[in-house]
Amino acid sequence: MLASKRRIRQRLWRLWAALAIALLAAPAPAQEATEEATVAPGEPLAYGEVVQGQLTEENPAVLYHFAGEAGDIVAITMRSDQVDPYLRLMDTAGNVLVFDDDGAGDLDARIGPVVLPEDGLYVIVASSFEAIVSEQAEIETGRFELDVTLYEALPIGYPGEFEDVLGRDEALKVYWLEGETGDILRLSLESDDFDPLLVISEADHLAQPVARDDDSGGDLNALIVPFVVPASRPYLLTVTGYRRYNTGAYRLRIEVLEAQALAFGETVETTLSSEQQAAIYTFEGRANERVDIVVEAADRLDTTLTLFGPDGEQLAFSDDANGLNPEVRGQPLPEDGTYRILVQPFRRGSTGALTVTLSLSRESS
Questions:
Q1: 8 A C-beta contact, residue 260 and residue 280
Q2: Range of the domain at 181
Q3: Which tens digits make up the pLDDT trace of 77-120?
Q4: What is the pTM assigned to this prediction?
């Protein structure tokens, strides 16, 4: 029943958004100036403009729109001390392109930075978390602040280390990273001045972030490891503070994790730790061979196993094939080349010893 209600609600949102855009496109009636900034019908938000809004029982969502150009890198931020902000970005047909709940930290919402795919109008729906996820909750009411900001991304490569400062008037910094399919990276963001937050997003289409971390690096620092690059395409790295108005110096480091060569019939031992949250191996395989990969961990360490082909595409994944241990058996290899094995804890931060065994399957031709 709840899922059905949510589907009905989504249809209503689309109809409402389409109708609202039609109204917004109409000429605006004359309005008296008020103390708080508001967006009149037909008047788009400008980049960098900060507007004040209010959620009420009669209006649990407020709609804005802005004109964007293809290639613009924008972030939409909604902050409030009175409600739990929730943001959606829509097209003019009412289709949800991307959404966010707590992307700006402190329960505040932020969409992006994202790269706009085309010229045109984009619709922002500002509401509360409870209004979206709960059918029975009381409607949150209160004031909020919203802005749409245009950013430039600094191109960077890897491996590399980059130092910069998040200034008093800057909510975030954006970097442009060209990734290669199958590369396995360790990204760390450290600061002695503030609690850093690191976000990785695909730059070539609107989507939810592919990775995000706040405190996995210890001492409130951010750490994403391993990050397996899904495809050869550009990615946006966003550096920001978990707390509102965080500022100060930071260091962003990107490392390529080295793999250990593994031979058929070999068993290797390793230990996962806070510094080494992944074990990576390579082996040379031939087309039509079938392989067995078995992981055995001590002390009830729960691990996962992923096998990547020579082109970086995922061929197999296993979690709890034998108790908490993963294994892949009889996996066919599609081509000659170098294959990668990635073993990591199911729960980030888990540690312990394990062994990995690689062998040719009896079914191999």
A1: yes
A2: 154-256
A3: 999 999 999 999 998 888 899 999 888 878 899 998 999 999 99
A4: 0.74
